[in-house]
Design goal:
CATH topology of the largest domain: Rossmann fold
Structural class: alpha/beta
Number of domains: 2
Distance between the termini: 31 Å
Strand content: 15-25%
Number of strands: 20
CATH architecture of the largest domain: 3-Layer(aba) Sandwich
Number of helices: 14
Helix content: 25-40%
Largest sheet: 6 strands, parallel
Strand order of the largest sheet: 6-14-7-8-10-9
Amino acid sequence: MRVAIIGAGPSGFFVAGEILKRCPGCEVHLLEKRVAPYGLVRYGVAPDHLLTRRAIKLFDQIADHARFQYYGNVEVNRDVTLETLRQSYHAVILCAGAEVPNRPDVPGARLRGAVDALDLARWANGEAEAFDAAWLDGVRDVVIIGNGNVALDAARLFLRGAATWVATDIAPYAMEALAHHRVASVTIAGRRSAAEASFTEAEWNEVVGLPGWSVAADETGPFGPLPEKPGSDRHLVFRSRLHTACLLGGERVVGVRFSHADTGATVELPAHLVVFATGHRAPRWEGLPYDAARGVIRNQRGAVTGAPGVYVCGWIKRGAKGLIGLNRKDAIETVATMLEDREVLAARQPEPADWIEACRARGVRIVTWADWKRLDATETARGASVGRPRLTLSRNEALALL
């Protein structure tokens, strides 16, 4: 059998590994819209959390398998249609994640200066086009809306001292921009109480313990009293039970108006940068059933409802929640479901459209695994030359090098 997997993030690699292990003779083709693989492990993990990227070693071992092929810089429904892949493979497994932000539908939510936390993370990790660094000009007050670790990750971009970024693999342009920002106030505002927040203790302690910032909260912190720190003219503040009513401003945001969940009182905070850390949902895929309430493709144990031969895994299957390791458990279930259908799938007679050559004929530069290893070596060599883990190549730099 030949199986196409769409999305080279953790769920895509875990699915590939399960198929290669449990389905002798199966070929796995992994398609990724970006040049580089690894999904959120590369682009979504905070650049100062290098240990979280350790999973990449396992993904590399999977990719080295003789029955594995990687096709980077190929976007499904732009370069090749999902229907073409369904006709060309015995099975197609969507592992495309959940990158559509759940930004609140409130007035002003699209003003200049309003950004999604995932875009900020992608920018810091090498996707320069994900965020306009010019939005940082003149910013003194930042409001981050969200009650989880993603909000803390966004906060650390502004709270960390400039010199501390050298030990990370943050993109050079992002390190330069953050070294010169003038942010003096960061407020993390959430709908829930402090006790109900989704912060983990390790992330919380890391943020509230950063030097040079005073810390205050309108409720006792989820893990006990806040640390006592010397006074500072830079302030980190946690606000709870605030529902976003609207963003204030004309062409650019100048503040956020909230309503207090208990009292209904109006609370207004100044902000020239607002970061939404309010979760994500999977995109709609034409021809596949969509559960708008949950933000997922409808499925039963990974088999897409009403679409024989199509499966899902990861956030597109269960919603945008869970740590990296949970995708492995998810992959085991999805592959088991696919293997239950193996006789039916194997009996199909796919008519392989030569979509690879068709892409190349249209000028798409398909990135192979050998190409990626060359780019990876270049990034690490560039980093080593300046005493850093790596210097990330932009998409255009990578394609020009190839």
